[in-house]
Each structure stands twice: as structure tokens, then as C-alpha cells.
UniProtKB/TrEMBL annotation:
Metal-binding listed as a keyword: yes
UniProt keyword Metal-binding present: yes
Keywords noted in UniProt: Lyase, Metal-binding
Species this chain originates from: Herbidospora solisilvae
One annotated GO molecular function: metal ion binding
Signal peptide: none
Protein name: Sirohydrochlorin chelatase
Pfam families: CbiX
Top-level taxon in the UniProt lineage: Bacteria
PANTHER family: FERROCHELATASE CHE1, SIROHYDROCHLORIN FERROCHELATASE, CHLOROPLASTIC
Length: 236
């Protein structure tokens, strides 16, 4: 049971469906379903209602309010036996997916003349924002980019336009933006608009149903299913 954030923008649900379609193709025979925390049906509780057991995989890129509060709250009254996996991020495969999107947009991966702004939605949970900053630091160490810095579409600073302007002022020859966002929608549109207006050379697409995300979803499912099996053995 994948659970996505949910959005009024239909493009977001389309990405969730496309990602899970690829998961089904990669693992024939696995019952793969989708639910949402907000705006779109079925809700998580609604989708779980007919099931006796399930592994819930949050389609979220960082552990924050939705994974720490919303999902446990939704599961509090559920009769099904449920194991919840960690969020999709952080994971080295997400950096590979970011590089895929930058390459598709025309950026040579690791180009020493290119500075990267890693942009997430931002969170009121400071640990989630710290996680994004750590991803940027690790990415900068792994590749010879001119620089890798972070920005946030909401809830924290700097904003994408501020990060682009700071890199330009520091002398970056080229500035590109890598959205740490699962799907197009309000934040993705806002990031692209503000970053380009501030002088970014390009903004890559959101992560979408990239092959790396398919692998992460299955990795999270496998680990959680194994944990549920071990727990059941202990109970027996």
C-alpha cells in the first residue's frame, strides 16, 4: 500500500500511478495499491479497510510531519495488521535519480563549471531540512560540481531565487536547479518560475517515476515485509 501526499494538481496523482505501474511491472504478482493523505481518494484508511494485512510504503522523500504524525494517526484505528516502511529518502538512489533528470535537461553530471541548487519543498520539521542539507553535502563530495547548495520552496531559507542569486554573486559560471520533489505541482511550478527569474540556467524535471524510485519502493517494501515476518515469528 503506497501512500502519497496528495495534491489538488492532477499531475501529482498521475506520477504516483505511473510510478506504481512500473513497480507492478518490476514485480509481477505483487498486489500494489495506492492511497493518499490529502485531496485525493482513496484515503489511507479507506484503502486499508478491506485488507487483513499490508505493508505501507510512504511515497515521501523525507521523514517529517506526514510520516511521523499523519500516517501513524491514520493507522491508529485500523484493524489490519500493518507494517510501515521508512520514507523513500534519504537514499543514494535518489541522488542518482536527480542526476538522471539533470542529464536529461542537458547538464553534464559533475561538471566543475556547474553549481547545483538542490530544492526541496521544505518542512516545519528541522530534521527533515537537515536531511536535505546532508544530501547536498554528500553530493558535493561525490562529484566535482562547482558547488551544491540547498534551497526550500517553503518553511525554511534560502528560497530558490536566493540560492541562485548567491551562487551567481559567488561567481558560479552556470547554475542549475535539481528539484528534490516527487511530482510536478504547485511547488515544482513555483521553484521553476522563481529560479529561472533569478538567473538559473535550467531547472530539471521533478523525480517522477524514475527507475531509481521503482527500486527504492521495492527495497522499502522488501525490508518492511521481512521485518513483519520476523516480528510474527517472535510472536509465535
Amino acid at each position: 500500500m503506497a501512500v502519497a501526499h496528495g495534491s489538488r494538481d492532477p499531475r501529482a496523482a498521475a506520477v504516483a500511478e505511473a510510478l506504481l505501474h512500473r513497480v507492478r511491472l518490476a514485480r509481477p504478482g505483487l498486489d500494489v495499491r495506492v492511497s493518499y493523505l490529502d485531496h485525493v481518494r482513496p484515503a489511507l484508511t479507506e484503502a486499508l479497510a478491506p485488507l487483513a494485512e499490508a505493508v505501507v510504503v510512504p511515497l515521501l522523500l523525507t521523514a517529517a510531519y506526514h510520516s511521523k504524525v499523519d500516517i501513524p494517526g491514520a493507522l491508529a484505528g485500523i484493524g489490519a495488521r500493518v507494517e510501515v516502511s521508512p520514507t523513500l529518502g534519504p537514499d543514494p538512489l535518489l541522488t542518482a535519480a536527480l542526476e538522471r533528470r539533470l542529464a536529461e535537461a542537458g547538464t553534464a553530471v559533475g561538471d566543475p563549471g556547474t553549481a547545483v541548487v538542490l530544492v526541496s519543498a521544505g518542512s516545519s520539521d528541522p530534521t527533515a531540512n537537515t536531511t536535505v542539507r546532508r544530501i547536498a553535502r554528500d553530493w558535493a563530495r561525490a562529484r566535482p560540481w562547482w558547488a551544491v547548495t540547498t534551497a526550500f520552496a517553503s518553511a525554511s531559507r534560502p528560497r530558490p531565487a536566493e540560492a541562485v542569486a548567491m551562487l551567481r554573486a559567488a561567481g558560479a559560471p552556470r547554475v542549475v536547479v535539481a528539484p528534490y520533489l516527487l511530482a510536478p505541482g504547485f511547488f515544482a511550478d513555483k521553484v521553476a518560475r522563481e529560479a529561472l527569474a533569478a538567473g538559473a540556467d535550467l531547472v530539471a524535471d521533478s523525480l517522477g517515476p524514475a527507475p531509481e524510485l521503482v527500486r527504492i519502493v521495492l527495497d522499502r517494501y522488501d525490508a518492511a515485509a521481512a521485518a513483519a515476518g520476523r516480528l510474527e515469528c517472535l510472536r509465535a
